[in-house]
Amino acid sequence: MKKQYAFSLWMALFLVLAGCSAEPELKPNDESTVQSVVDGTTYPLTTTDSFDNEITLSEEPKRIVSLMPSNTEILFALDLDESIIGVSDFDDYPKEAETKEKIGGMEFNVEAILALEPDLVVAHELNASAADGLKQLRQAGIPVYTVANAASFDATYDTILMLGEVVNRTKEAEQMVKEMQEAVDEVFRATEAIDTPKRVFVETSDLPHIYTPGTDTFIDEMLSIMHAENVVKEQGWVEMSPEAIVEENPDVIVIMYDYVPNIIEQVKARPAFDAVKAVQQDAVVQVDENLLSRQGPRLSEGLRQLAEAVYPEAFHD
């Protein structure tokens, strides 16, 4: 069931990043979200979220519901375990998240959330398909703070700093961002001496519809940081046929899902894939999709895992 949830979440992500959101009027503001934060948050606090929705918090939130795993991971990393009272059905990290009240999936249960009496609901751009539910929560007087779907490390840092300010964890948020930046820089430096960048194909779903991240995506940024080349030059999320993958002849094929058993062997066995360099060099690898798809504190860990999969020689002396 969790694998089905993960696949559904990926499909929703594709729709948002491809510009096919069910609520196209939901657009993040154009200005940079957070440039700096102060030590501590003064309440009452009136602020706007990534979509210019204004919220007012009379005091520091003590009963928080999170509607998306990425937000949940940030909130837990900000040491808010005791304040988190509800999470989505997708949430499985950290392990403490599994002990929290489940409030549904993409179409969350409004009544269940209201019953928890939260003083803050942290939503995500992917919740746009449940706009009516968000409206009901706001009409019930519950502050709903929505973050944009981050498509870069800088955007993720902004999200962390924004949430840190809202929940009175500014110092913790700054420290989290600092540690992530250091980890990203470590990967950059570890691969900086690569002479010939490897050409990489990242596969995020299996047949019959193989999707891959093209330019202007988070994965494309990660590949650039580690001095690798994305074989896909089209913008956004692209559907690729097996024949097109063979034609691109990547050095490495990265599998970014786990809902198909023995997927590495299945990819290798696709027609004509025996002529692909990645198959010939045993460079079809699988990575943890959650580390790479959830825009939170573990993204730098996901970058490291991806870099080690593409350039194992750069990390293992």
TrEMBL record:
The keyword Coiled coil applies. Residues 63-314 form the Fe/B12 periplasmic-binding domain. Residues 1-22 form the signal peptide. PROSITE patterns: FE_B12_PBP (PS50983), PROKAR_LIPOPROTEIN (PS51257). It comes from the Bacteria. Residues 163-190 form a coiled coil. CDD domains: YvrC. Keywords: Coiled coil, Signal. One of its GO terms (biological process) is cellular response to iron ion. The keyword Coiled coil applies. InterPro entries: ABC_Transporter_SBP, ABC_transptr_periplasmic_BD, Vit_B12_bind_prot. Belongs to the bacterial solute-binding protein 8 family. PANTHER family: MOLYBDATE-BINDING PROTEIN MOLA (PTHR30535:SF34), VITAMIN B12-BINDING PROTEIN (PTHR30535). This is ABC transporter substrate-binding protein. It comes from Savagea serpentis.
